[in-house]
Each structure stands twice: as structure tokens, then as C-alpha cells.
Design the sequence.
């Protein structure tokens, strides 16, 4: 499968050349999301909660790259039988489900209910199997008109320039440098060019989606635009902004204003679903400071905004592999602070690489360990068959084995810390239970990790009940006191951490 095209790779290639010249990186319907019947809010802005007020941690996949193809109806080609393995084998609890403006509004002002019905069928399927959904409005190279995906043909204005695909054998994302593609982006982002209706239509499409899924308990969030690019100029202008980004002085008022208008419009029809924003795609391969300014959630109550940057080092798709081990902590030093400034939870909407590249499992371990430290959620790119996939048939791939972990899918209380050691397979968790939260604390415990079984040690009172069919453990504890838990393979001695 072709990896999705990305401006970031092109900018990375160009920047490397510039620098080189100058000098000679739970089963059943999830109780998450938008209806929020209990009115429970997060214990702090950096946490997501479900309808019961439990803190949610998402581990999952993007579902899926095949949806980019309009000949597939912009829908996944993986069968439901394969999708069942998400939870039953890997222990995942979430999908970032790709949707497309072109499929939602194929004709200006007219929305395709049949497409949304098909999306809803997938949402219902995932909900029935305890998997949360984040709907992601995806785009790459602006539109399928340019061999990409995203905008409908009626929203493409090239100012008379002709699109030429990337040469045979060249990375297909290089098509983004074509003048027609650049003109299309500019006509979307710059209202002064005569097409202010384009952003309005895009936002209207989101409102239509929000109206459809506002009360669906499976849909936890909306990712408002995948890897937005060129909001402040064409490729040449973007390259001039790289030094500003490296210096931490680059800000993106056009993108911030667009996201604020989208948030305001969606909140008129949906006051509870988490709304995720992404920084410019310029930042995808470089650990630079983010470019978004302050955003406001007009809902009545604490904000439900999330920060959804992607994490790909510059060598993610090359034979060089993962060699810069300072990359992930440097990335985290920026992104965690930016999420706190929003304020909102950090959700790594995409990270990935081929399992055949050097140090692929080290990359996975570094990212997931960092995410655990910050109670951050993530979805791997992607579920499609191929070297990037976490599963081959019904067997986890190299990266799938690394992604398969014990983690708290829902925490009934105030979070402390959690960690999973892939070498010893020991999991530790601390938290303080709180009143007014419904349901137990739930842990995902993939059975493949414990062929000889496992034991759970719990302090602070309560019970821990395994569910082999659901590959989970339900923990019920008295409210209002600190608790700690240690889970390890049978025969391994582990002591719950101090609370």
C-alpha cells in the first residue's frame, strides 16, 4: 500500500538540501462521547473522559488508508471480520476513522446521506465491539483531482494552471509542489482570491457530520482537518517559514481562525464531543514549536478541545530507519506543552513506520512510553495490509507486537501514573478513586502477552476481575482513597507502586 502523501516529506527533502548547501528529523458500546448524559467532566484539562466521567486512554489505528480511494466509495475495504481483531487480538480500543469532504458534499450545498449512512454502519459496528471512534476529516494534496484526497472537484480552483502528476518512480507526494495544487490550496485558505465560500462549505460539512453523530455514544471526537498545510502561503513561502518554526516564532493566525470558526459552528449543534485540532503539516517531520494561537471552546462547561499532532521522524519512510533517539523526547517537549496551553488532552493521531526499517520497535517503544507518561492517546498509521500494518492475517506483525500493551482503557478516578515494560510485561498503575464516576476501572490485557496467565496485586481495597473473552480486567475500588495496582505474568513477583 502506498503511504499517504504528506507535505512534510517534501518540505523535509527540500530543507535537507538547503541545510546541506548552507553547511557544505470494554466490550459493548463504549460509554464515550457526545451525549454525555451524566454531565461528568474531566478531573483536569489534559484528560479525556467518557459519559461516566472515567478518564479514557485510546490505543488504536487509523481506519483506514484504503478509504482515500473514491472508487472504494471513500470507505474502508477491510472486512468486519478483520476489524474484529483490533480488540480481540491487539487489545485496541479506538479507531481514527477517515471521512472526506468530497464524499460528504459531492455537489456544492448537497450532502450525501448514503455515504454518512455507510459511515454510521461502521460506527455502529465499532460501538458494538467496545471500540471508540474519532472521525477524521482527511485530506492529502488537497483533492482526488490531484491524485490525493479531500476536497470535492467543485472546490478545486487552479487559476488556469495544469496539474501534472509526479514522474514515474518519484515519491507521489511530490505532486504537492505542482502549481495547480498550490493554487487550489491558496484559493481555499485566502478569501481575498475570490472564493470565501470554500471554507464556509467545509465548515458546513462538519456541521452536517456533527448533527448526524452528536448523540452517538461511540463517537468520542472529531479531528477537524488532517495535516493542514499552506495556510500562510504557497510552498515557496512555507519554506521561508522553516527558520521561524525552528526559532519558535512562527504562528499561524489563518489556521487558528479557521479552526475557531469551525469549533464555533460545530458547537451550535454539538456541545459535548471532543474537538481536535492539528498544527500545520510543516511540523510533522520536525520537532519545532507549534504554530496555533489561542482557541476557545464556547460550550457551557470546561473546554473539550484536544491537540492531535502527528509524529513522524524524517526517516520514517526511508531505509535509514529510526536513528535519532533524541527525536521523540524533543517532539514531546513541544507538543505536551502546547496541549497544556490549549488546554486539552494530547492525542497522537498518527505515528508509524514499516516494521522492516531499522529500529522500528525501538521507535514504537519510545513513542508509547512517552505517551504513557503523559496519559496521551494514540492511533497507529494504519490498519491496511502491508509492512506498516500491526497485523498480518490474524497474527501481530513486528510493530503490532510492540504496540500490544496493557493500559487503562477507562479509569474511574483521578490519574496518577501508569507504565508498561515490554521486556518484563509488568504493568503498574496508581490513581485516586473519586465519587460521581460510573463504572469500574478497566484495563486492556491482550492474552497473547500472557500465555501462562497473569496475576494482579491491588492496594487500597477492592477487587480485580479478569474477563478472558474481552481480554480485560475490571477493577472496582472504594471511592475517595488512593490505589495502586501491579499486573505481571504468573510467577513474576511484582509490588504495586507507592501512592
Sequence:
Amino acid at each position: 500500500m502506498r503511504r499517504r502523501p504528506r507535505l512534510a516529506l517534501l518540505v523535509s527533502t527540500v530543507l535537507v538540501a538547503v541545510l546541506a548547501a548552507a553547511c557544505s528529523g470494554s466490550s459493548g458500546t463504549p460509554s464515550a462521547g457526545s451525549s454525555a448524559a451524566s454531565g461528568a467532566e474531566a478531573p483536569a484539562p489534559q484528560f479525556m473522559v467518557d459519559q461516566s466521567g472515567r478518564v479514557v486512554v485510546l490505543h488504536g489505528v487509523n481506519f483506514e488508508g484504503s478509504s482515500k480511494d473514491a472508487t472504494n466509495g471513500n470507505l474502508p475495504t477491510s472486512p468486519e471480520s478483520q476489524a474484529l481483531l483490533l480488540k480481540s487480538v491487539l487489545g485496541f480500543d479506538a479507531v481514527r476513522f477517515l471521512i472526506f469532504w468530497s464524499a460528504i458534499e459531492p455537489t456544492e450545498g448537497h450532502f450525501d446521506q448514503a455515504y454518512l449512512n455507510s459511515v454510521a454502519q461502521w460506527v455502529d459496528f465499532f460501538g458494538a465491539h467496545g471500540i471508540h471512534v474519532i472521525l477524521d476529516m482527511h485530506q492529502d494534496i488537497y483533492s482526488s483531482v490531484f491524485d490525493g484526497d479531500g476536497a470535492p472537484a467543485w472546490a478545486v480552483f487552479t487559476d488556469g494552471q495544469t496539474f501534472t502528476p509526479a514522474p514515474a518512480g518519484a515519491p507521489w507526494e511530490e505532486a504537492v509542489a505542482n502549481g495547480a495544487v498550490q493554487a487550489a490550496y491558496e484559493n481555499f485558505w485566502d478569501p481575498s482570491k475570490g472564493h470565501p465560500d470554500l471554507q464556509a462549505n467545509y465548515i458546513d460539512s462538519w456541521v452536517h457530520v456533527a448533527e448526524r453523530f452528536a448523540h452517538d455514544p461511540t463517537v468520542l471526537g472529531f479531528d477537524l482537518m488532517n495535516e493542514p498545510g499552506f495556510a500562510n502561503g504557497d510552498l515557496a513561502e512555507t519554506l521561508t517559514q522553516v527558520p521561524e518554526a525552528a526559532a519558535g516564532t512562527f504562528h499561524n493566525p489563518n489556521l487558528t481562525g479557521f479552526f475557531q470558526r469551525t469549533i464555533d459552528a460545530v458547537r451550535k449543534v454539538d456541545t459535548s464531543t471532543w474537538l481536535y485540532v492539528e498544527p500545520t503539516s510543516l511540523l510533522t517531520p520536525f520537532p519545532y514549536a507549534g504554530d496555533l494561537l489561542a482557541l476557545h471552546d464556547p460550550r457551557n462547561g470546561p473546554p473539550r478541545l484536544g491537540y492531535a499532532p502527528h509524529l513522524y521522524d524524517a526517516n520514517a519512510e526511508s531505509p535509514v530507519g529510526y536513528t535519532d533517539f533524541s527525536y521523540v523526547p524533543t517532539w514531546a517537549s513541544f507538543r505536551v506543552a502546547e496541549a497544556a496551553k490549549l488546554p486539552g488532552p494530547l492525542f497522537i493521531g498518527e505515528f508509524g513506520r514499516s516494521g522492516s526499517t531499522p529500529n522500528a520497535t525501538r521507535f514504537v517503544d519510545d513513542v508509547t512510553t512517552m505517551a504513557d507518561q503523559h496519559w496521551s492517546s494514540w492511533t497507529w498509521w494504519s490498519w491496511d495490509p502491508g509492512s506498516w500494518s500491526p497485523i498480518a492475517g490474524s497474527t501481530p506483525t513486528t510493530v503490532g507486537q510492540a504496540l500490544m500493551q496493557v493500559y487503562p482503557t477507562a479509569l474511574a478516578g483521578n490519574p496518577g501514573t501508569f507504565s508498561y515494560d515490554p521486556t518484563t510485561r509488568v504493568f503498574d498503575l496508581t490513581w485516586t478513586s473519586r465519587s460521581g464516576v460510573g463504572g469500574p476501572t478497566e484495563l486492556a490485557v491482550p492474552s497473547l502477552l500472557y500465555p501462562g496467565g497473569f496475576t494482579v496485586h491491588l492496594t487500597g481495597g477492592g477487587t480485580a476481575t479478569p474477563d478472558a473473552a474481552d481480554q480485560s480486567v475490571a477493577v472496582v475500588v472504594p471511592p475517595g482513597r488512593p490505589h495502586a495496582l501491579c499486573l505481571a505474568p504468573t510467577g513474576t513477583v511484582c509490588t504495586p507502586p507507592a501512592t
